[in-house]
Amino acid sequence: MKACTRCKRILSLDSFHARNGKPGAACQCKGCAKERGFAYRAQNLEKIRAKDRKYIKQNREKIRERDRIYQDSHAEKIRTRRSNYYEANSDKIIANSKRYQLEHKGALVAKRKAESEQMTDSYIKHVLSNRTTLRKSQVPSELIPIKRLQLIIGRRAKEILDEEC
Ligand SMILES: [Zn+2]
After folding, report:
1. How far is ligand 1, taken at its centre, from the CA of residue 36, in Å?
2. What pLDDT does residue 165 have?
3. How many CB atoms lie within 10 A of CB 2?
4. CA distances for 13 relative to 8, 27, 33, 84, 116, angstroms
5. In angstroms, what is the span from residue 34 Cα to ligand 1's centroid?
6. Which of 23, 24, 51, 71 lies at 20 to 30 Å from 78 by C-alpha?
7. 52 CA distance to ligand 1 middle (Å)
8. Other residues' Cβ atoms within 10 Å of the Cβ of residue 117
9. What ranges in 5-74 are assigned the alpha helix state H?
10. Nearest to residue 143, comparing CAs of 153, 132, 154, 156?
11. Where are the domains of the chain?
12. How many angstroms is it from 16 CA to the middle of ligand 1?
């Protein structure tokens, strides 16, 4: 038993995290450590978010691989959870999505236009999924550069025809 330096409660050692490999050696109890973590997060949200973004940007491949392994080994569970969630919340999800699209119509149109001009991977996937039976998430990445070339050819051909008129 020992006292937490923060909440002063007397608690058993397993109420404290290990420190330097020694079990129960932390000064503050697990409850206080958790609260302190939340408080730190709330006070430093922007800093933490920026750090998360940087990590994601620098480790994109690693994260993707990790996600893929997780998704492969939990496919059935994920599918069930997703469809259960959708079934239980479908009214809410559809209403939210409609409302979002209405509220952000201008921004969404601008975003799609910019993506189309820049031929981003996401845009190319969108085009491919519209013109095939694949869902956007199923479009294999090796098709993206090929489709991009095809779009460039199509757009160039259109420009030439427009110039001739
Ligand atoms: Zn405590």
Report:
1. 10
2. 65
3. 16
4. 14, 10, 14, 40, 59
5. 9
6. 51
7. 28
8. 10
9. 30-43, 45-58, 60-73
10. 132
11. 1-46, 59-103, 106-165
12. 9
Q: If we measure between CA atoms, which residue out of 117, 146, 118 comes closest to residue 131?
A: 146
Farthest CA pair distance, the chain: 88
Q: Please tell me the predicted confidence (pLDDT) of residue 131.
A: 86
The parts of the chain modelled with pLDDT lower than 70 are: 165
Answer for the pair 136, 146: CB distance below 8 angstroms, yes or no.
no
Give the whole-angstrom CA distance, residue 143 versus residue 141: 5
**Amino acid of residue 132:** T
**pLDDT tens-place string over residues 3-41:** 999 999 999 999 999 998 899 999 999 999 999 999 998
pLDDT at 157: 92
